[in-house]
Amino acid sequence: SFSLSLQKLGNPSKPISFSLNLTQNHVPKRLHTMISTSKSEPIHPNPPSQSMVYRVPGLHPDEIDNIAGQTFRRYTLSPASNVRRTGKGTCIVWFRNDLRVLDNEALFKAWASSESVLPVYCVDPRLFGATYYFGLPKTGALRAQFLVECLADLRKNLQKYDLDLLIRHGKPEEILPSLAESFGAHTIYAHKETCSEEVKVE
């Protein structure tokens, strides 16, 4: 995820270009299950080529569940997580393609570093344009319907934490600075994208 200092945004009333200071936090993509046994050996005689799981001596099944739970809750907001909020003011969480609430590092960091969080989704008109190569439509009817359903689900999940999703139509580089000025937000958190057209927006 990355944070964007709003002091560099300039005049929020006009479209702008901005540079980002990106930081990469390495979080395990897969937690391999480890089961107690007397020696290390594959669990399955013919495991999938990209998923090798080994038995590790001395690890009780209850410990496995505890490790998995701690890993999942590391970047998850919940009443039981007791997240210590040390920051001041307001932070914006810019939701892009990752519309999760659970295990969401950007949302977690925004919550921990502020007194209030404003979740935002920008319906970028470029999402409904044509691809750079071949000129194919980026979003058809089915994908648009799926997006609507995902946003409804995201809003429902955010409301469990007394947050509400603000949906705005327009380019994020125009919308976010204006919202930051209106709400007095000092930082915008978002997940860094990897695909070329999403990266261009950054």
TrEMBL record:
UniProt-recorded Gene Ontology molecular function terms: deoxyribodipyrimidine photo-lyase activity; DNA binding; FAD binding
InterPro entries per the UniProt record, alphabetical: Crypto/Photolyase_N_sf (IPR036155), Cryptochrome/DNA_photolyase_1 (IPR002081), DNA_photolyase_N (IPR006050), Rossmann-like_a/b/a_fold (IPR014729)
Residue ranges of coiled coil: none
Gene3D superfamilies in the record: HUPs (3.40.50.620)
Record-level GO BP terms: photoreactive repair
Domain Photolyase/cryptochrome alpha/beta: 89-202
A Pfam entry, by short name: DNA_photolyase
Protein's name in the database: Photolyase/cryptochrome alpha/beta domain-containing protein
Organism: Opuntia streptacantha (Prickly pear cactus)
